UniProtKB/TrEMBL annotation:
Residues 254-382 form the Acyl-CoA dehydrogenase/oxidase C-terminal domain. Residues 6-118 form the Acyl-CoA dehydrogenase/oxidase N-terminal domain. InterPro entries: Acyl-CoA_Oxase/DH_mid-dom_sf (IPR046373), AcylCo_DH-like_C (IPR036250), AcylCo_DH/oxidase_C (IPR009075), AcylCoA_DH/ox_N (IPR013786), AcylCoA_DH/ox_N_sf (IPR037069), AcylCoA_DH/oxidase_NM_dom_sf (IPR009100). The lineage of its organism: Bacteria, Bacillati, Actinomycetota, Actinomycetes, Kitasatosporales. This is Acyl-CoA dehydrogenase. One of its GO terms (molecular function) is acyl-CoA dehydrogenase activity. It comes from the Bacteria. Its cofactor is FAD. Keywords: FAD, Flavoprotein, Oxidoreductase. Belongs to the acyl-CoA dehydrogenase family. Gene3D superfamilies: Acyl-CoA dehydrogenase/oxidase, N-terminal domain, Butyryl-CoA Dehydrogenase, subunit A, domain 2, Butyryl-CoA Dehydrogenase, subunit A, domain 3.
Length: 394
C-alpha cells in the first residue's frame, strides 16, 4: 500500500477546499440550513460542474469520473471540514452504488448519468434508527429492520402487474428534496417476507414528504409516507439486496469516517486558534501546559482516525472490510475534538451564535445515525471472531 496521495488526489482536495472556503462560509451555511431544501442548490451545482462530485466514483460510461473510494473519501473530508450541507452522502455514497450494483441495464442508463451530472439527487429510504443495521455496520442485516408484517415499516404488494408501496419511514437523509427515493420494503407477507428495493420518483402520486427537525441541522432528513404508491423494482426479484447493502455499508463507513475526520480536524484548528487569543491571568490560555496536553491528545486521536479512514477506503477495493472500525475511531475523534472545543471556548462555545456547537451536534447526530461507537466495534469484533479466538488461546 502506497500511503501518499497522487497529484490528482491533491488537486481534488485543493480545489474543493478553495471552493467551499468561498461558497460555504459560516454565514452561508446557516442561511442554507434555513431554506426548505436544507442546502444550497447553487453550491451543489458548482460541486457537480467543477469537480463532478456526484459521479466521482461512478464509471465513465455513465458520465462519472471513474475514481475509487479513496477520492470519494478525500472529497468527504473536505465537505466535513466545512460541515457543508449537501446531497453528497445520500446521493453519491448511499444511493448511486446501489443503482450501479443492483440496477438493470435500463435503470443504470437512465438514472446514473443524471446523478453524475448533478441534475438528479437521490435518497435511501430505510428507517433512520436502523440505517446502521441495514448497512450491516452494527449487526446482521438479515432481520426485520425494514419493517413489514407486524413490525410496520414499508410493505410492497403486486397489483395488476405493478408494485405498490404502503407505509412510513422516518429520518430519511435528504428525503424531503431528493428527486428519487430508493425505498426498502418487505414483500411476501408476514410468514415469507423478504426485503427488496424500489424506485420511487420524488413527485409520485400518494407520496408525502415532510422535513423533520433534526439534532444535526446540517444533515436534513424527512418523514416519508407512502399510500398506494406505484414503484419500480430495483433490479430483479432475485437481486441479492442484503449482500449489496452490506458491501455498500463498508464503503460508506470509510467515506463517513473521512468526513468525520475532516470535521474533527477543523474543530481542532478552530480551538487552537481560539486558545491562542483568549487570555487569562494576563497570558493566552494556549500557553498553559494543561491546555497543550489536552489539544495534543486530540491531535493524536485525529491523526490516527485519518490513517484508519484512508486505510479503510483503500481496503474496499482489496477485499478487506474494516470500514466499521474506521468509522468508530473517527466518530470518537470527532466527539472528543468537538467536546474539547466547547470546553476551551468557554461560555461562548455553548451559544447558538457560535459554530462550535455545530461540530458537537454533528458528532452526536452521526453516532445516532451510524453508530454508536461501541456497537460498531462490537460487531467488527464479532465478525472477526475475536472473542472466539481469545477463548481458544486461553
Amino acid at each position: 500500500m502506497d500511503a501518499s496521495f497522487t497529484p490528482e488526489q491533491d488537486e481534488i482536495r485543493r480545489t474543493l477546499r478553495e471552493l467551499l472556503r468561498r461558497r460555504c462560509t459560516p454565514e452561508q451555511l446557516r442561511a442554507a440550513l434555513d431554506t426548505p431544501a436544507g442546502h444550497d442548490p447553487a453550491l451543489w451545482s458548482a460541486l457537480a460542474e467543477r469537480l463532478g462530485l456526484p459521479g466521482l466514483a461512478l464509471p465513465e460510461a455513465y458520465g462519472g469520473v471513474g475514481c475509487s473510494a479513496t477520492e470519494l473519501a478525500l472529497a468527504a473530508e473536505e465537505t466535513g471540514r466545512a460541515l457543508a450541507p449537501s446531497p453528497m452522502i445520500p446521493t453519491a455514497v448511499l444511493t448511486a452504488p446501489l443503482l450501479l450494483t443492483l440496477g438493470t441495464a435500463a435503470q443504470r442508463a437512465e438514472l446514473l448519468p443524471r446523478i453524475a451530472s448533478g441534475h438528479l439527487t437521490a435518497a435511501l429510504a430505510v428507517p433512520g434508527p436502523h440505517l446502521a443495521t441495514a448497512l450491516a455496520l452494527t449487526g446482521d442485516n438479515a432481520g426485520d429492520w425494514a419493517g413489514g408484517g407486524r413490525a410496520g415499516g414499508v410493505q410492497a404488494r403486486r397489483s395488476d402487474g405493478d408494485w405498490r408501496l404502503y407505509g412510513e419511514v422516518d429520518q430519511v437523509l435528504d428525503g424531503h428534496s431528493a428527486g428519487l427515493l430508493v425505498v426498502a420494503a418487505h414483500t411476501g407477507g408476514f410468514a415469507r417476507s423478504r426485503t427488496l428495493l424500489f424506485l420511487v420518483p420524488g413527485d409520485a402520486a400518494g407520496l408525502t414528504r415532510v422535513r423533520q427537525t433534526a439534532l444535526d441541522a446540517t444533515r436534513p432528513r424527512a418523514r416519508i409516507q407512502l399510500r398506494d404508491v406505484r414503484a419500480e423494482l430495483l433490479g430483479t426479484e432475485q437481486s441479492h439486496v442484503l449482500d449489496a447493502l452490506a458491501a455498500l455499508g463498508d464503503t460508506a463507513a470509510a467515506v463517513l469516517a473521512a468526513e468525520a475526520v475532516g470535521a474533527a480536524d477543523r474543530a481542532l484548528e478552530r480551538t487552537v486558534e481560539h486558545v491562542g487569543q483568549r487570555e487569562q491571568f494576563g497570558r493566552p490560555i494556549g500557553s498553559f501546559q494543561a491546555v497543550k496536553h489536552r489539544l495534543a491528545d486530540v491531535y493524536v486521536q485525529v491523526q490516527a482516525a485519518r490513517s484508519a479512514a484512508y486505510y479503510a477506503a483503500w481496503a474496499t477495493s482489496h477485499g478487506e472490510r474494516v470500514g466499521g472500525l474506521a468509522l468508530a475511531q473517527s466518530l470518537e475523534a470527532l466527539r472528543t475534538a468537538a467536546a474539547e472545543g466547547i470546553q476551551l471556548h468557554g461560555g461562548i462555545g455553548f451559544t447558538w451564535e457560535h459554530d462550535a456547537h455545530l461540530y458537537f451536534k454533528r458528532a452526536a447526530g452521526d453516532e445516532l445515525l451510524f453508530g454508536p461507537v461501541h456497537r460498531l466495534r462490537a460487531h467488527a469484533a464479532e465478525a472477526a471472531r475475536l472473542f472466539e479466538r481469545a477463548e481458544v488461546a486461553v
